[in-house]
Specification:
Layout: E1 3-5, E2 18-20, E3 29-33, H1 38-58, E4 62-67, E5 70-76, H2 82-87, H3 98-108, H4 111-114, E6 117-121, H5 127-134, E7 138-143, H6 148-155, E8 163-167, E9 176-181, E10 184-189, H7 212-226, E11 232-237, E12 240-246, H8 251-267, H9 271-274, H10 284-294, H11 299-302, H12 321-328, E13 334-338, H13 346-353, E14 356-361, H14 368-377, E15 381-384
Helix pairs in contact: 1-7, 3-5, 5-6, 8-13
């Protein structure tokens, strides 16, 4: 196929719209079902690059959940424990395949942001993964292939209109990429940076001990940042992004935003949240929204609204700030990656509140020594990569 006509561009008034290869060659993608749009393809192609690199860096199946050209979540296929299976709403699905575990993690880290996502998978989509996808609100999926059973399951989504894209895994893009803005063509070399152990070898803090698991999490953080709109930071734990702050003008706002998402991920695992009893008719998306309000600071005010209590079988007690802080203090060993240097130590102070122990960032700020000193105060280990990872 040499071109794919799209319904419209970013917005309905932006027509005509299509994707094609400038050199006249065939596209490396095939639409198996649905009619993907302009933003769908932007999410699909960015997501595909991310999961392809995660697989290459870790050797594990990988998945990403994309929204508006930034990942809401990304993960590799490590098994789920009982708590994670419960907070990701997959405890009823039994033992999942590694690829399905990867998507459950990618989707589950920030379920509110992942609502209506575009999914990227590094492996052939199997039936386990398709069953998980089928029950979630999603716009589409890109993968190098689909089993016959998986394809039939996915074709049944959205009244038969679910977007299913197959990517040619052997495709290699040209080394130079171009795009137009306001009728003017921009050209640059592709960011082919290999995120490897050597890139993480310059540990500048007093604590130089970075275990293998944290090194793997550093790679996941940096690869995720390669395909996240800048400025961006990424918190990672146990093989999955647990908080991504994308597209903020101030780096500390990225760190706060992503840190709040990481905190919410951990608060969902608390006994207070696991013990919530929802009415049977409340769907997963509404449960996610309800949990987000319950763990938020505004819940005491919301409690006064009688309509809100109809979501619960039993009215839950207030989850106090003191209780939340005590629970969050148990989240340790988190890794933080940044796409550019930290200009002030306030980023480190905020990261510490979310259990960060290991940091990967380019370095190069005039206040590097101040940032290093703050890491040393908390016993953190920080590697300077020397490489910026802006993505626009």
């Amino acid at each position: 196929m040499y071109e794919i006509q799209l319904k419209y561009g970013c917005n309905p008034n932006q027509k005509p719209s299509r994707i094609f290869m400038e050199d006249g060659s065939g596209l490396p993608v095939c639409v198996l079902n649905g009619k993907p749009g302009y933003i769908n393809f932007l999410d699909a192609f960015n997501g595909w690059q991310l999961v392809k690199e995660l697989k290459e860096a870790t050797g594990l199946p990988a998945a990403a959940s994309f929204k508006h050209v930034s990942p809401a979540g990304a993960a590799v296929g490590l098994p789920l424990d009982d708590v994670l299976a419960k907070i990701y709403w997959v405890e009823d699905l039994g033992d999942l395949s590694p690829l399905a575990c990867a998507y459950a993690r990618a989707r589950g880290a920030d379920r509110m942001s992942s609502f209506g996502d575009f999914i990227a998978l590094s492996e052939e989509c199997d039936a386990d993964t398709a069953r998980l996808i089928k029950r979630e609100v999603s716009d589409g999926v890109i993968a190098p292939g689909y089993t016959e059973e998986a394809l039939e399951l996915l074709k049944g989504k959205k009244k038969g209109n679910y977007n299913i894209i197959q990517m040619a895994p052997a495709y290699v893009p040209a080394p130079v990429e171009r795009k137009q803005v306001y009728g003017i063509t921009f050209e640059q070399g592709r960011n082919e940076l290999d995120i490897n152990g050597e890139l993480l070898s310059n540990v500048v803090t007093e604590n130089k001990e970075i275990p293998d698991e944290a090194l793997a999490d550093m790679k996941i953080a940096l690869i995720t940042l390669k395909y996240t709109q800048s400025n961006s930071v990424c918190y990672v734990k146990g093989g999955q992004a647990i908080g991504i702050g994308a597209g903020q003008q101030s780096r500390v706002h990225c760190t706060r935003l992503a840190g709040q998402k990481a905190d919410n991920w951990y608060l969902r695992q608390s006994p207070q949240v696991l013990g919530l009893e929802f009415v049977d008719s409340l769907g997963r998306a509404d449960r996610d929204n309800t949990i987000d309000v319950y763990i938020g600071d505004e819940y005491e005010d919301v409690l006064r609204e009688g309509e809100w209590q109809k979501r619960f079988k039993v009215k839950p007690p207030v989850f106090t700030r003191e209780e939340k802080r005590a629970w969050l203090d148990g989240n340790q060993g988190v890794t933080l990656g940044s796409d550019a240097f930290f200009p002030f130590s306030d980023n480190i102070e905020r990261a510490h509140k979310s259990g960060v122990k290991y940091i990967a960032q380019p370095g190069g700020s005039v206040r590097d020594e101040e940032v290093i000193a703050c890491c040393d105060k908390y016993g953190m280990a920080m590697a300077f990569t020397g490489i910026r990872l802006f993505h626009h």
